[in-house]
Amino acid sequence: MKINRSAHNPLIEAGDVAPSRPDFQVLGAFNAGVAQLQDETILLLRVAEAPIPDRADEVLVPRLNEAGTEVQVERYDKNDPGYDFADSRFVAKDGQTVMLTSLSHLRVARSRDGIHFEVEPQPALFPEHPLEAWGIEDPRVTQIGDTYYITYSAASARGVGVGLAETSDFRTFKRRGIMLPPENKDVMIFPEKIGGKYYALHRPVPKSFGAPEMWIAESPDLDHWGNHRFLMGLGEQGWDSARMGGGAVPIRTERGWLALYHGADSSHRYCMGAVLLDLEDPSRVIARSRVPVLEPEAAYEVNGFFGKVVFSCGALLLDQTVRMYYGAADEVMAVADIPLEDIYNTLV
Amino acid sequence: MKINRSAHNPLIEAGDVAPSRPDFQVLGAFNAGVAQLQDETILLLRVAEAPIPDRADEVLVPRLNEAGTEVQVERYDKNDPGYDFADSRFVAKDGQTVMLTSLSHLRVARSRDGIHFEVEPQPALFPEHPLEAWGIEDPRVTQIGDTYYITYSAASARGVGVGLAETSDFRTFKRRGIMLPPENKDVMIFPEKIGGKYYALHRPVPKSFGAPEMWIAESPDLDHWGNHRFLMGLGEQGWDSARMGGGAVPIRTERGWLALYHGADSSHRYCMGAVLLDLEDPSRVIARSRVPVLEPEAAYEVNGFFGKVVFSCGALLLDQTVRMYYGAADEVMAVADIPLEDIYNTLV
Q1: Boundaries of every domain in chain A
Q2: Model-level pTM?
Q3: In this predicted model, what pLDDT tens digit does every residue of B249-282 receive, in sequence order?
Q4: Contact across the interface for A228 and B177, Cβ inside 8 Å
Q5: Distance (Å, rounded) from C-alpha A152 to C-alpha B169?
């Protein structure tokens, strides 16, 4: 496998991103959707922020107020026995997550060469609805004609659902509502209609039984989705045996739709793999990676806010090379060029 | 509250239903969808069956084979320490449900007077797809024109999703696919278009955070659903504070759409209540029950396969009286007539 990680990795770090308000700090800029707009490469970053603490023994929780109009910061005592603060990403109570310790929004970064990015000073999409009260995360961008469709995780006390938005210029955005209800994430819309219908991969997380696995759905109009079918499940052992979900928007190749997806094992080590889907019937799996395409190995992948994670939300096909942009360690953005042939070689 | 339980309750019991094969026994006939077809009242029953055991120390698990073509029975030793058999409804492993101990199908029962029913000798809809491998459950029936649309829970190792089927005569049925992915249940389609769109109530169960609460979605065609909005959440305390979901198909009244819904408290006691939704915009809650409309009190409601449960999947409006059909104790069917005015009096 010839993985060519950029010498400029990480491409974007927390320090490159201005916080949305002076009393907040940026914890990470990662898991970006990718688009090509004229001669620019666009990264639509997930920017995770948290209030700057002024005391070590308190936990600050940022979230929208009930009306969805304003971010408020709640203060909790780290020694409060009613809550569990062991995982710095969230606050738990009775074994259930009840709050997140950061609030994510989406931010545009632009580049002429696909490597050197300029991050815009203001958010592109900021939580503004009660169903986004805990943040919006992990966007995927699909270009169809001149319109870019953005799916994102909308988190709130009601669970994590999937929001849909659109833009034509990455300056103004229009929300189109919640396209899939909780719990669902990792939704990528295919870049063209197939047999007259739109398709999307999605990743529900059922509670009573079942696992975080990949499904496919159809739509006449991108807003309404149906004919949900199970696509592929956890690996029996190894890198994608504990959880999985779509990654980059599927890329049309001669052999089929190439969908890069993430998988994790029981130690929460996230890798990227690939699945090849039938061009005419994308609910049909042709082959999937036996071994990962990309594993967390570089220092910025292994160490960080949540280490041992590579997580792609977008990739470009440049001739016979896949340029995979990916979040590393839930903190920074990186890129790697991987020969298409080497990805094919992981498939069985 | 003038609850008039029928003197003929339970209307249908397990013994009234022939098993689908001679080596199976019927455990319950309950949670039926309701329809009026010409001069008949139709109950579309959930019939739960299990293999007849021949040894006390084994647990038999019925489910479709991988291809979805045939029911197979697997045998487990009750003393196997790898599994947890404590709850007779399912088999657990490492705290997660991994199998159900019964397999449900849907069966038609017909009546001229709405009280005395004749149960058909054969299943109407039987599991026949890998996503139905653990059974199909809890149907709701909505008549639109001459077509009856049936939503049902489709259970499998992939989770519980929502299947859609249709019929015009309750003799032949056509499946239309999975309309909502796991985990979701308790879906009822409104009986007419509102502002040019179909509407449905649904009840997702998110895993990471969030609760089993009620949502509403829209559709142009009944197959594809979108614009998912949160409708109403758990009560702060009392009868509907632990879980809730839609019950009967909403009934048009002068005051709004009357939707009977179920709620349970932390002791798993299931009651029925009501919510009134705006006639023009059913995502707007006008009022909901402060106290239950129906509570498990009769012997057949308190005792049974899973006691202290009343659970309605369908009701009829007869002049100013709601005739609520309901499953009792996850085992039998019952009916109660309740003055509309008394239901209104529970609303705040």
Answers
A1: 4-344
A2: 0.97
A3: 999 999 999 999 999 999 999 999 999 999 999 9
A4: yes
A5: 43
